[in-house]
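ARCHIVE CARD
CATEGORY: sequence design from structure
SOURCE FIELD: tokenized fold
FIELD CONTENT:
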């Protein structure tokens, strides 16, 4: 009897193990009968996310060194894709509100519809004011230490309605995270929301409570908060809303106040992102916070911007990879980037778009899971901005003419966001020549998305190689292509 029971248990265990094993074996990607749909945007042409080719694979067992190739290996997978999106600020919301109903719908479709637009699924917003808006404000009466006056009535006029419409257009696929630019003036040592300054230690708990109030108020208004970053650009003394935190100060505020306060309030599931500043200092910030076990346990990821070239140098893409290798269990999130110093004569400056393409390819190849642009919409002056820090957005609404202006940046972002789906896996993708850069993902439905940029001023013919098969593709000078197969 015992032998029979043992044999039965062994059979069940073996069967269960066999089924489990079958589930974990990935199905190898095959190019058989696959059509490569090529979408192109190119400088000095009318091509904008245009389907320019539909190609088929043929056998190419060994490329020659004289051939230019992009090698893709769908069986080598890396990070899971979260999404791409932009920020809904007071500036974006107020410009949106001044457009005609038809143009409002066009903006919503252009960004948040996968079919009619480029399919944004990430939204960033501000906790009270940033520089992008007509004024500086908070959600409380100045000096209210108990936060009894807290209310978000200001946001209900423009910002909250736009966020709701964006989420509706995205058909429930968009998630939102929030960022403060500065605590209220009375909580800071300089008694000013602008010009840097620091959060006074006696207000650490009050400020932590403020995040809880914000999350609860937004969620009561029907807007789920997926996550938050602790402070926008914590090492930048700006003429607009700003607040300085050293790495140790951000660590201690997180582990002693913000993290425990969110958990106590039943908000421990909110994703907390640290740093939220440029790539230059991100390794130091990450190590100080994440090497502390008590701080580490509250951290979902490390956020970063692209403005480190203010010093005259090149973007520090490699620092993202270093942080990824140092802390592979943490997520990397690009939280802000825009082309600065607005000039209407440069609306169609192609290199503004190329800046996006280079950053997105490099950031994704270095382990980034999500990528968030800055303002989704600004006016014909690059604002409103209450301190004159006017910038570009992918789309501008000219409030004098009522027309929308699409810049190259919109199309460059779209080459990624329109085609890469949430939960896609990044896969191996490399070029054999420095004039081409690429990244690739495999979507949950099994389709591969490869993005290729031609950095040169010459047309390039290359072979897209997957295993022992390839297809020949031509890419125009200063063009970006998405290949779906």
């Amino acid at each position: 009897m015992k032998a029979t029971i043992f044999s039965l248990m062994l059979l069940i265990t073996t069967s269960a193990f066999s089924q489990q094993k079958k589930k974990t074996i990935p199905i190898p990607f095959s190019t058989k009968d696959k059509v490569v749909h090529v979408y192109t945007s190119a400088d000095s042409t009318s091509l904008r996310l245009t389907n320019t080719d539909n190609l088929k694979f043929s056998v190419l067992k060994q490329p020659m060194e004289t051939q230019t190739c992009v090698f893709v290996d769908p069986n080598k997978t890396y990070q899971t894709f979260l999404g791409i999106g932009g920020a809904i600020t007071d500036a974006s919301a107020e410009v949106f509100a001044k457009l005609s109903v038809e143009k409002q719908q066009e903006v919503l479709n252009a960004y948040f519809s996968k079919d009619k637009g480029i399919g944004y699924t990430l939204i960033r917003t501000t906790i009270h004011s940033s520089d992008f808006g007509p004024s500086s404000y908070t959600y409380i009466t100045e000096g209210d230490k108990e936060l009894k006056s807290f209310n978000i009535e200001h946001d209900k006029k423009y910002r909250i309605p736009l966020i709701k419409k964006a989420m509706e257009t995205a058909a429930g696929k968009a998630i939102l995270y929030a960022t403060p630019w500065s605590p209220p003036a009375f909580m800071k040592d300089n008694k000013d929301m602008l010009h840097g300054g620091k959060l006074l230690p006696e207000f650490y708990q009050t400020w932590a409570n403020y995040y809880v109030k914000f999350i609860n108020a937004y969620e009561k208004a029907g807007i789920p908060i997926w996550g938050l970053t602790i402070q926008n650009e914590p090492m930048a003394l700006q003429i607009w809303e700003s607040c300085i935190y050293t790495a140790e100060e951000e660590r201690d505020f997180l582990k002693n106040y913000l993290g425990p306060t969110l958990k106590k309030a039943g908000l421990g599931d909110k994703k907390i992102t640290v740093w939220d500043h440029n790539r230059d200092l991100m390794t130091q910030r990450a190590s100080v916070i994440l090497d502390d076990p008590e701080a580490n346990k509250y951290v979902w990821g490390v956020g970063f911007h692209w403005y480190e070239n203010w010093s005259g140098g090149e973007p520090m893409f490699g620092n993202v990879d270093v942080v990824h290798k140092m802390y592979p269990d943490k997520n990397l999130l690009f939280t802000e980037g825009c082309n600065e110093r607005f000039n209407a004569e440069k609306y169609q400056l192609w290199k503004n778009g190329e800046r996006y393409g280079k950053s997105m390819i490099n950031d994704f190849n270095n382990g980034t899971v999500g990528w968030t642009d800055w303002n989704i919409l600004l006016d014909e002056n690059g604002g409103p901005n209450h301190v004159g820090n006017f910038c570009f957005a992918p789309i501008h609404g000219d409030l004098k003419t009522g027309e929308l202006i699409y810049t190259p940046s919109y199309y460059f972002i779209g080459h990624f966001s329109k085609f890469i789906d949430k939960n896609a896996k990044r896969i191996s993708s490399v070029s054999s020549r420095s004039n081409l850069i690429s990244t690739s993902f495999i979507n949950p439905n099994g389709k591969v998305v490869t993005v290729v940029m031609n950095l040169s001023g010459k047309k390039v013919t290359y072979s897209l190689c997957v295993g022992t098969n390839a297809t020949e593709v031509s890419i125009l000078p200063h063009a970006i292509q998405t290949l779906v197969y």
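CARD ANNOTATION: Residues 1-24 have pLDDT under 50 and may be disordered. The longest strand covers residues 69-80.
SHELF: design records, drawer C
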